[in-house]
Amino acid sequence: MANFEQLDQEWIELMKEARDLGISIQEVKDYFQRNSAKLTEKEEALPTIRLLPS
Fold first, then answer.
1. Which of 27, 6, 33, 3 minimizes the C-alpha distance to 15?
2. pLDDT in tens, 1-50
3. How far is CA 52 from each of CA 45, 46, 49, rounded to the nearest angstrom?
4. Does the predicted TM-score (pTM) go above 0.85?
5. Which residues, including other chains, have CB under 8 Å from residue 32's CB and lie 6 or more apart?
6. For residue 53, what is the DSSP state?
7. How far lies 1's CA from each of 5, 7, 10, in Å?
């Protein structure tokens, strides 16, 4: 599992790349808001799997 410092550095690099491409912070926020709602809908639509004790 990645440690938080590494993960934070990856996010920093990702945001720098977005900035260099002309993508605004607001556009990034909007993207995550739109897609987090879609992900939540997909997760809610997935069937629940119950594991039986062995």
1. 27
2. 567 677 788 888 988 999 999 999 899 888 888 888 776 666 666 566 56
3. 22, 19, 10
4. no
5. none
6. P
7. 12, 10, 14
Q: Show the tokens assigned to 5.
A: 């410092």
Torsion on CA atoms 25, 30, 35, 37, rounded to nearest 10:
130
- Structure-token match 């897609």, residue found: 35
- The conformation of residue 21, written as its DSSP 8-state character, comes to T
What token pair was written down for 45?
């639509």
| Letter string b/e over residues 34-52, b meaning 16 or more CB atoms within 10 A of that residue's CB | eeeeeeeeeeeeeeeeeee
- Res 19: pLDDT: 92
Q: Which amino acid is present at 40?
A: T
